[in-house]
Amino acid sequence: MIHSTFIKELKELSRDGRVRISFLIVVLLMAVATWISKSQYTTINEQYQEAETAERHIWEAQGEKNPHSAAHYGTYAFKPKYPLSLVDHGVDKFTGTSIFLEAHKRNEAQFSKAADQTGLARFGDLTPDFVLLFILPLLIVFLGYNAFTKEKEMGTLVLLKSQGTPVGKLIFGKWLGIFTPIFITVALLFIVAGIVLSNLNDFGVFSWTSLGVMFLVYLAYYIIFINLVLFISSKMKKSGISLVLSLGAWILACLAVPKAASNMAESQYPYPTRQEFAASITKDQKSGIDGHDPWNKQAKMLENEVLKQHNVDSLEQLPFNFDAYRMQKGEEHTAEIYFKHYKHLKTQFEQQSKLYRNLAVLSPFLPTRFMSMAVANTDYSTHWDFADAAETYRVDLQAFLNGNFAENSSYGEWSYRADESTWKEMPAFDYDPPELSEILSRNSSNSAILSAWILGSFSLLFFTTKKL
Amino acid sequence: MYKFNFIYELKGLLRNGWIQLLSLLLFALFFFAFYNGHEKVNKRKSDILAAHQEVQESDQVMLKQLDSVERGMEVTASPWTIPSKPMAVGNYHPRVAAMDPSNLAFISTGQSDLFTHYVKPKTSGDDLALNFTEITNPVQQLFGSFDPAFVIIFLLPLIIIAFTYNVLSSERESGTLRLLASQPISLASWVLQKMVIRLFWILVMISVILTIVFYINGSDRSIASLLPVFGVTAGYILFWFALAFIVNLWVGSSAKNAIALIGLWLLFVLLIPSTLNQMGSTLYPMPSRTLMINQLRNAKAEATKKQDEILDNFLRDHPEYAINDPNQGRSFYHRYMASQQLVREELQPVIQKFEGQLQNQQQWISQLKWLSPAIIVQQELNALAGTSTRDYESYRKQVTAFAETWRQHLLPFLYNNQPFSSQDYKNLPVFEYVSLESDSTAKSTLVLAMIALGLVGLGFVKGMAYQSSRNIITP
């Protein structure tokens, strides 16, 4: 029975002109989206490599200079793009791509793509993730809305019933009838994406495993949609009503809930404004060690401490440049202040993420979106990870420069110039994104929610539908 | 016949609960959206207010310090922050350059979630040091906001589709079309009547709901300020009704109609905008920001190397300062400000390229926005709310100009080696944001209505041909 229902559904779908057109449109959209993404990805990566090499050259060719001048001159950390970002662009458009690393200050990533675009960009971009997340569920709605209602409308359900067809088997046959074409299409799309990605040379390491995980996530998402659409179709009497309801579910899951969640997250756990954030850091800095400020209380204490430690009575007698030493201490203190404030931001971000997870009860879109971005390394966590790595590098860089200054000069010797070759000694900034296993364990609650959705929707379809 | 139709339809819609459901749904959606919009605007207002207060407080400290300096007392602060030095005023006591929300800002979030609404330009630093983006969780920006613009642009058409997709087909499917076919009325005008009744109801409901929600959310403005929003919305509603009318006559069964209408919705609301955006950014590509950083670095490195030379040149160009500078009292800031001036001038064309491309893209959109009513409405609502790309561009320009005013106001003090005094406080420049006026609302509304009328006309022609050539009872 399952088999014959399955074959019949497939035949019917393949004969339906609308279905053929819909599939064609989806594949076409996907092809265009992938092509656009690929060309953008290649240019961005070329620019990234060019900028990175140029910046390293600028840093190394500073010539003779006081290390602290070099610290203020600073350098840039550029955010790389990873192969899977071609499939899911995630929040990349909204996060900055470069961080200026300088003395005394932790800077935010600058220059987001969205800020350089017009308001039109807010409608969404034609990208593979747009097709995967929005259009394919819509295709499922079109495939399945009348799976049962058409049998009711044409009266064939009565025939089926009179033959004693078990309801469960009928449902499963229909389910397979929709799942199979979706599965084949998506699998083909992912295989093509994998081939395209593995043929891009030089840019990051592409892993088939990550792509496979992403495929599974989307498959789960589509299974949930198939279950929901079939459930609605089984409960309704008319195709039209079934279609409207399924569309309603689509709108709710993909458009309304994410937006409402965004508003709730923003108002319940707000970030400070950029200016407020900077002001509260300055406030903390005033009460702490300021690397430049010899009048500062804490610096004075440090001075006494160091003098006592080395058993000398003036700073000139120290075996190192105390100015540089104090600056380094100040730098460490500033880094702590930044750490504290960024930790606050991070707590807000975690609270917001929790809210998104709670609202995932209303929408399978949310866990899918988050999982997909995470695997593609285009989610907000990866951005945090990158920003933290850049900050660690900045702190190391300051320690290196202040260390050089302290060791090679004496107190008050601001005219000291470090050798031309000094700058090469500091290794270049290098960032590795989190491993897949780490991403998965970080997103374990999202995968749990997605699994709960699958189980829930399956039981809704099979256990509550005893009678058609 | 018309009167009967009207009464019958109304009764039908009331009895099957459509009108009740629709009113509730629209009310809930608009209420939530208005609430979100107001919340964002209130946050923005209170942020700006807090910034002004902070400056006021720090000004009090500054005046006290100035007073101490003028009376020859010692000031307990780092020497470079004492406000008798003009650059200390310029860097440690900047003014707030805020973009106050317009009256209708709650209607559309637009670009407001990307950008900050106040900055404090300092005398040092280049124009790029002014960061206009805001720190937020980018997920919020990715998902967008549930604001009135979202309800109007995305959800209203879907509600209209649900309300109209089966106007003709349901009669056919339930068999009542046979009865109607015997009546002396053309198919098209009969469908039109049913549509007009629905249109009328939606318009009434929307105006009532907008008014109620407007007052519930405690707006202190007059309801008349909402009129342009209502106008554009009505035009958009009209367009979707016209589309539904034509699809009803053209397509066939209820489900087919619904699929066709959803397809059109997808086309107008998602595909055309994203394709146009893509084409815009391909035709007028933004130069690379990462490569711009390299340019900036090189310019700065050059300038630092030649600081003394630059200062000499600067003083040659500005003899008014050189008179008071017999080559003495040259401090760090004398050299720094002069070289910054040069860096700014050199980078001006680079920055201009970005703004220029953004303007080109905007131009491209305003030419092609007529391809999709959703774009027309979005652009209009953003313009009315003062949250469009152009508004932020104008704000950036005004701030950059103000930063220059701020610098130019304090530079004479620096180069004349003249201390800043409490007398000079009241002359400090103040930023005043001048908002853009949106004047195309009426035109857009009119165009939307014209498109709708055109579609209805097309529907009539099709309806006539259809009726005379085919059996209308079975599709």
UniProtKB/TrEMBL annotation, chain A:
Q: Which domain of life is it from?
A: Bacteria
This protein's species is Flagellimonas algicola
Alphabetical UniProt keywords: Membrane, Transmembrane, Transmembrane helix
TM annotation in the entry: 21-37, 130-149, 170-196, 208-232, 239-258
Protein name per its UniProtKB record: DUF3526 domain-containing protein
A Pfam family it matches: DUF3526
Lineage, opening ranks? Bacteria, Pseudomonadati, Bacteroidota, Flavobacteriia, Flavobacteriales
TrEMBL record, chain B:
Q: Does the keyword Membrane apply?
A: yes
Q: What is the superkingdom listed in this entry's lineage?
A: Bacteria
Show the InterPro entries listed in the entry: ABC2_memb-like, DUF3526
Keywords for this entry?
Membrane, Transmembrane, Transmembrane helix
Residues spanning the membrane: 17-35, 149-168, 195-216, 223-251, 257-276, 446-466
Task: Please identify the protein, giving its name as recorded.
Answer: DUF3526 domain-containing protein
